[in-house]
Amino acid sequence: MKEDKEGLKKTVEEFPFKEGLGEVLKRIKELLKTKDVVVVAFSASSTNVGKSTLAKAISSDLEAENIFTFNKHSIEDLTYEEIQYTEEVMGGTSCKKAVIIFDQCSFGPFYLNTDKERVRHDEEIKKKFRGKKLTPKKVDLWVGISSQDQPFGSRETPIADILIKNELARIKGL
Hints:
The protein is an alpha/beta fold and 174 residues long. It has one domain (12-166). Helix content is 33%, strand content 24%. It is built from 4 helices and 8 strands. The strands form 2 sheets. Strands 3-8-7-4-6-5 form a 6-stranded parallel beta sheet, with helices on both faces. A two-stranded antiparallel sheet has the order 1-2. α3 (80-92) links the parallel β5 (68-72) and β6. α1 packs across α2 (51-64). It is globular. The two termini are 30 Å apart.
């Protein structure tokens, strides 16, 4: 769920893993029609819910279409050198589009989907890319990911434009 400006709850569509992957790819490709760089961030319920698996699957599909991808855990982890490398790849190869994935941007309990949290992450993006050739302004797509045995809690509302409940994730203790 996310709230609109009037504070009304909006339903965010939830998908199983494979269908969710397809929907995420569809949305990224739609964004790439009007942007050179798309920023995707994950909001996860816990560990072992499939964040890395999802990030790798997205990257694999996009790279097969000659779209450069870069995966990091969080915005804070992205270095100046990595931004510079991404700019060089886009400027010197046939890859003219890029997708940056932050697979642990919002992680664990107590992350609420509020405008304040989204703005905070968007400001981090602007700050990281200030003065660079690449100029993403915000997180373009938030993906909430959980598993059957590690759902988002009843008091947690993930930052998400799409939700994936990963039925393929290993159940803890097995």
